[in-house]
Amino acid sequence: MPAPFHSPMPAPSHSPMPVPEPAPTMTAPTLITAARTLSAAVDAMRFGAPVTHVYNPLDYAWAIHHRYLERFGEGRKRVIFVGMNPGPFGMAQIGVPFGEIASARDWLGLEGAVGQPAQPNPKRPVEGFACPRSEVSGQRLWGLFRTRFGTPEAFFAAHFVANYCPLAFFEGGRNLTPDKLATAEQRPLLAACDAHLRTLVATLRPEWVIGIGNWAEKRATEALADLPGLRFGRILHPSPASPAANRGWAEAATRQLVELGVWQD
């Protein structure tokens, strides 16, 4: 959605006045429109074996995702953190990036009803905020931000968190990441996700884009390579599948961000 145009009032000829500051850009509506566009694009895609089920939380958990963008996507952000795609017990449940239930509900203040995916996976049911499982990656990520900034408002004043790809892929009960898809299936998916990321960055105008893990950094670097002045980095992915992440992830990620110059010690 384009930002509204406000024409400044002309100054009287006998009393020059300073030119007023332009009206603040309304970024959240643009992010909401971009997410809708991405959702429609990926809904039209089909994926073969070994993929058995595909979840698009931008569809069935749209109300919560919309609320996340509306509440936290307003204004320019200095840093955008980019993850890979929804985890089965986080964003796949409630539509919030790295959406560990307790963090999203108790810290971000998000709640509400969630629908069902078009083809539910009986081995990975969607239970929304009633999901009894905890996404460790989200618990670690939002836990770090809560410890460092205290309130969501303080964190989101200069930061934003997004996932590169909105889809969760499953082979039965096993989670499949987008990099494991067939090349022919990856190509249109990556093109749609690249376009969305470019819109996100053009709207929020960050100084830094930080990949959460190697693959997210690689995709961000390739998608945004021609944008001048943008700086890239990465932090260790907080997944419990990573032995390094199980040895003081918050301290390691903080150290990486300080060394990059994103945060101050």
Q: In total, how many domains does the architecture comprise?
A: 1
Termini distance?
Answer: 38 Å
Lateral arrangement of strands in the main beta sheet: 3-2-6-7
Tell me how many strands there are: 7
* Computed CA radius of gyration, to the nearest angstrom: 19 Å
Oligomer: single chain
For this structure, what is the CATH homologous superfamily?
Answer: Uracil-DNA glycosylase-like domain
Mean pLDDT: 92
Instruction: Return the CATH architecture.
Output: 3-Layer(aba) Sandwich
Structural class: alpha/beta
Beta-strand percentage range:
5-15%
The proportion of residues forming helix, as a percent range, comes to 40-55%
Stated plainly, the CATH topology is called: Uracil-DNA Glycosylase, subunit E
> Which geometry do the CA atoms define?
globular
Largest sheet: 4 strands, parallel
Please tally the helical runs, counting DSSP H or I stretches of 4 or more residues: 10
Query: What are the low-pLDDT stretches, counting only 5+ consecutive residues below 50?
Result: 1-23
CATH class: Alpha Beta
Region (Disordered): 1-26
Keywords: DNA damage, DNA repair, DNA-binding, Hydrolase
Family: Belongs to the uracil-DNA glycosylase (UDG) superfamily. SMUG1 family.
Pfam family, one: UDG
Q: What report would you give on this structure?
A:
The protein has a single domain (36-259), classed as 3-Layer(aba) Sandwich (Uracil-DNA Glycosylase, subunit E), CATH 3.40.470.10. 40% of the residues lie in helices and 11% in strands. Helix 1 runs antiparallel to helix 8 (183-204). A hairpin with a 2-residue loop joins strand 4 and strand 5 (174-176). By secondary structure, the protein is α/β, with parallel strands linked by helices. It has helices at residues 27-43, 57-60, 62-72, 91-94, 101-107, 136-149, 152-156, 183-204, 214-223, 249-260; strands spanning 53-55, 79-83, 159-163, 168-171, 174-176, 208-212, 231-235. Residues 1-23 have low confidence and may be disordered. It has a four-stranded parallel beta sheet, with helices on both faces. Strands 1-4-5 form a three-stranded antiparallel beta sheet, with no helix packed on it. The chain starts with 26 loop residues before the first helix and ends in a 5-residue tail after the last helix. It is globular and about 45 Å long.
